[in-house]
Amino acid sequence: MSQGATIAKRTTGVRGLDDVTCGGLPAAGAALVSGGPGAGKTVLALQIVANAAKRGEAGIVVAFEESSDRLLQHARGFAFADALHDAERVLTLDARPRSDATVAGDFDLEGLLAALADAAARMDATWVVLDGLDQLLSLQENRSQALVQLRRLDDWSVEQSVSVLLTSKRATGDQEIAASMRGTEYLLSTVIDLSTTLVHGKLNRRFRIVKYRGSPHVSDELPMLLTHDGIQLPYGLAGDATVGAQTRAEGAERGVDPSAPASSERIGTGVPDLDDVLAGGPYRGSTTLISGSPGTSKTTLAASIAATAAEHGERALFVSFDEAPPSIVRNAASVGMDLQRHVASGRMRIEGRTAWSGLVEEHFVAIANELAAFDPSVLVIDPVSALLKASSAESAYLSIERLLALGRARGVTTVLTSLGEGEDPASEATLSHTSTLADTWIVLSYHVVGGERNRALSVVKSRGTAHSNQVRELILSAHGIDLAEPYPFGSEVLMGTARLQKESERAAETRAASDQRDRRLHDIEEHLTAASRRREEAVHEEQRLHEALQQERASDANESSDRAHHADRVQRRRTPGPNPPAGTNGESRGEAHETYHRRSEEGGDRD
Amino acid sequence: MTDPTPPTDADRPATFRLVLLVTGDAPRSLRARSNLKQALKTMGDGAASHLDEIDLIREPATAIHYRVFATPALLWADDDAAVSVLYGDLSDDAALQRFLEEGRALRASPAQAERS
After folding, report:
1. What's the complex ipTM?
2. What is the DSSP letter of A452?
3. Which of A203, A298, A300, A322 is the most exposed place for a label (fewest CB within 10 A)?
């Protein structure tokens, strides 16, 4: 693939064509452009000559199929037509074979080459277009002669160092090349085939380099657009690398280097709680996918991100496929978002497009052009799923991928919204293709519990971010978007009325618990007071009893001494002498015994 | 530049005539030249006196003027335009014969006489 080894080329100036051919068509030699009727062969050839004329080169257009005047008239519908009328640089020759022309034997194209060589030398022409040469060659009785003539033509163009474009029609898309030109595709080293297919009733144009000897090239069949600007290949080389290549020069102009390390800067979403969930917001230059069922406020959230960029003085491009721009402004205003201010200040552009009205490729080109012209830092495509409705011969996902690559190369932060079908979480899988491309995937959904719908937001993924995985309730109010504090309850996160209900229940419970605690405290305090009161009483009682005891003891001692005195007195009275009389045994013994007994009793008490 | 200079060869009469377009000594041009000469001789009515032979390599503008780019080619033409064209090396005798006779008839017609 070394560029140095390839043949000398001449730039065509056709958007995308110079990319897929790695520099243009051979600077010396003939290239065949084949295709069915209306595939755009002649337009492509005329556009290349017109572009050359604009660059100051010269070209000769030889019309074999229709008059040169007619040819120029057809071209009038295109933006490049004026350049074809520059007589200094463009010579158109009417070379229609006469309808009554007859043939007697072999002929050659030497006369044509002589005329061309003369004109080319005078004009210093670099391009020669032979449009519909098969008309002339078909007169040739000996078919092999036609090939000989074409080889001669190819050799001649190499000798003269001019780029020759031969157009040749095919009856229908998959039929072979015109009979008179059959074999040309093997003979010439450069062959481009244009075709058309109908997809859902829409004409899709296809471009393919059948071969390009001596040059690297893209051999895939590519979508081709034919608009007022002429032909363009929206995707250039297939794949991101090439879209990058296409925009690298532009990027350099803007000071954006696509190969620069990924930004670690976060951009705000305008919803502080969401920024928190995303650890600061999406990365600059990243892609965010917001998917969800209808009415989950995808558009509002996307608009919020765009408005936040505009708020910071950056430019935001909002491409809307579902709603007209005025209704987006109005609806955003209902949640307190003033988009009109940003539109008026020129920081926001809202583009309304209808998905069905064009091919996916046309939308792609329109958005790509807008990106180049407006140079936004945030791009919103709402919803990107609308592109799936647009007609294309190839998967719309590829277009989306290319669009994202384009945005990335420009350092644009892209926000895509996508309609998830139904409320089935499994339908998220239908977005899986887009979601793999997204760096951040926010899913908006409804939670239907207890007879109401509540909007819920969760972050499915966010590359390079320690994001929260909690499902949060999304609240829209006149003050904007808000995320409710997560309210986990058991294994669920409560939302809406259930959350409010639970919140008030929880508050009541808390209140009850605190009341109970207060009561218990109070009780204990009371008990404590009672206990200390009782303790005091007991101390008093003890003291009193103590005193009582002392008193009792004191009084008891007096009494026993009294008694002792009394007993003595009785003793003394009964026994006047120290020995009791023997004569009075019975009575006196009994009395004595009794006395003795009482003493021992009193003695026990005293101990 | 769509109006190339018409041939201004002083020797060429401004009349309806037979024009043979050739390219130098290309094999087909040589063949056409001899085939035509042979046919005219056979017809033997002096048509050769009305024959113009133009080498497009030397006068490339003539091809553009007559809008004839395949060579060799035999034309019935006046100064303004070719009236009828026969492409090829004229190896098809019958076709050549027909072409020459048709042209002679045209030349004899009053309309053609007026034009010349």
Report:
1. 0.82
2. E
3. A203
